[in-house]
Design a protein that fits this description.
Beta-clip-like, 4-stranded antiparallel β-sheet, binds S-adenosylmethionine, alpha+beta, SET_SmydA-8, 15 strands, SET_dom_sf, 3-stranded antiparallel β-sheet, 16 helices, S-adenosylmethionine-dependent methyltransferase activity, SET domain-containing protein
Length: 497
């Protein structure tokens, strides 16, 4: 879906694991379960900073995670501007400056290694990551992208930079090895699936064969670095999406996933420092969580995304609930009761589960094949939508609302896009919009805000951006009403005269 922003920040990788022994549904740390808080000295990796509100817990299924050591108030900063352990360009990115990660057009090249940078400012940065890590090595090998490679929107050569930096950081800073050692890479699982071969082709082979850096590293180290990035990295981007980077942090990366996270994260695109705030009150003993996936995707899609990219089976309370905590992001209109009731999976954790109408008198069941066929067909239609054609989007919503719950992820993604389209797109700026579109924007924001209250409660980025859009539209509406009232008063005043 072009232009659809789910949240400003998403971790870019995935992992596996079963969840037996997972935290109880309300995520409270339970001293009788297999979850334990660790003596910091026993945990390989980062130790909690002195005076912070969390410690590091560990369970056989989730691995390490952050857990609150005292009650944390909503909006309190839990991790304050944490410096990244390593930063590098995202995979398959457009060409970017190797210091500030802004898009480059190849017109300015690093005088030493000939890789594109944004300007002299980044070329002369003494402490820039490019100068610190790969510049001299690449210059020695005359290893730089060709003109054709720099024209690609998904230049795979950039995939090699972040893993190479992790390997070099490990070699050069033995005191940091403990931090790197503490990060999960899911090596055994990755070896069994396609991603291992993709990393071999896009990272290991170029670094060892094309750039001939065999004296500096080996396949083992590069695969480990790729795994660390896949499992732990957060995406760094700015509002205009010109910055394209990924970063690994020693504390923020330990946050476990929950499809209803209790924090809001934000990375400063200029410094790549990560700040984590509590979105809601977090009681002592509760896990501190973030979401690794897209809030507005339904359970089937979220779980398969988490499995494919973060390699684990999510069994959080939202995934286990057929109605997704009442948000109904996956629910279908029941074909038998003409849409008066909704059909939900009997076992949401099982993709082959039967679906059943929730209407007490109906209880109609449908097989997963039928559901999957319907959803695949609607997904194809959604993928073909032109996002500049708002009428086409509105028609899609109206047409398929007869088969889907109004909050279904296929509709809600488009509604979220339209919330921002109305009021911001050329021809639809707040001042230019008719009353009809202004009230439509407010109605869409209200629908989305109801979902945000369930799925990203508190002061989350998602909730905040919707509230801002709603308030902008509401202000415009009040201003217009005030002007109309004034005009009416003037008219009636004129009549009296
Ligand atoms: C970014 S790392 C988090 C730190 C990691 N637990 C560790 O020990 O290094 C992501 C990995 O943690 C585990 N994980 C996080 N949240 C989980 C959850 N809700 N259920 C199961 N595993 C989870 C998965 O193995 C996932 O690939």
């Amino acid at each position: 879906m072009s232009g659809l922003i789910i949240t400003p920040l998403q971790p870019v990788l995935l992992l596996p694991s079963s969840i037996a022994g997972r935290p109880s549904d309300d995520q409270h740390y339970d001293s009788t379960s297999s979850i334990t808080t660790q003596n910091p000295a026993d945990v390989v990796g980062a130790e909690p900073p002195v005076g912070c509100a969390f410690t590091i817990g560990k369970s056989s299924d989730i691995g390490k995670f952050l857990v609150a050591t005292r009650n944390i108030r909503a909006d309190e900063i839990i991790i304050d501007a944490e410096e990244a352990l390593a930063v590098g360009p995202k995979q398959a990115t457009h060409p970017v400056c190797l210091n500030c990660y802004r898009r480059v057009d190849g017109s300015y090249l690093c005088p030493l290694c000939q890789w594109p940078l944004c300007s002299e400012v980044c070329a002369q940065m003494e402490n820039g990551a490019h100068q610190k890590y790969e510049c001299q090595l690449l210059a020695n090998r005359e290893a730089y992208p060709t003109k054709e490679e720099l024209e690609q929107e998904d230049c795979r050569l950039y995939d090699c930079i972040a893993p190479l930096r992790i390997v070099l950081d490990n070699h050069r800073n033995p005191e940091r090895s403990r931090l790197w050692l503490g990060l999960e890479d899911h090596r055994l699982y990755r070896q069994k699936i396609g991603i291992w071969h993709v990393d071999r082709k896009t990272v290991v082979e170029p670094v060892l064969n094309k750039w001939q850096l065999g004296e500096n590293t080996n396949e083992e180290e590069l695969q480990r670095a790729c795994g660390i990035l896949e499992v732990n990295a957060f995406e760094v981007c700015d509002d205009d999406k010109t910055i394209s980077a990924r970063a690994v942090y020693s504390h923020a990366c330990l946050m476990a996933h929950n499809c209803v996270p209790n924090t809001a994260c934000c990375v400063n695109p200029a410094t790549q420092r990560m700040t984590v705030r509590a979105a809601v009150d977090i009681p002592a003993g509760q896990m501190i969580t973030t979401s690794y996936t897209f809030t507005l995707d339904g359970t089937l899609r979220r779980r398969s995304h988490l499995k494919e990219t973060k390699f684990f089976d999510c069994c959080c309370p939202r995934c286990c609930d057929p109605t997704e905590l009442g948000s109904h992001l996956s629910s279908l209109a029941c074909p038998r009761c003409s849409g008066r009731n909704y059909t939900v999976p009997e076992d949401p954790l099982n993709p082959a589960s039967f679906w059943k109408c929730q209407g007490e008198k109906c209880g109609n069941r449908i097989g997963s094949d039928q559901v999957n066929q319907l959803l695949a067909c609607l997904q194809r239609k959604a993928d073909e939508l032109n996002y500049d054609d708002f009428q086409g989007l509105e028609i899609f919503i109206e047409t398929w609302s007869s088969l889907l719950h109004p909050n279904h992820s296929l509709l809600i993604g488009i509604k979220y896009y339209l919330c921002h389209f109305y009021g911001n797109a050329p021809g639809f700026l707040l001042k230019e919009m008719s009353w009809r579109f202004l009230t439509r924007k407010m109605k869409l924001c209200e629908e989305l805000l109801n979902i945000a209250r369930i799925l990203e409660p508190g002061d989350s980025n998602f909730h905040g951006s919707l509230l801002r859009e709603y308030e902008l539209a509401e202000n415009e509406l009040f201003q217009r009403m005030a002007i109309e009232e004034e005009e009416e008063n003037e008219l009636s005043h004129g009549d009296h005269e």
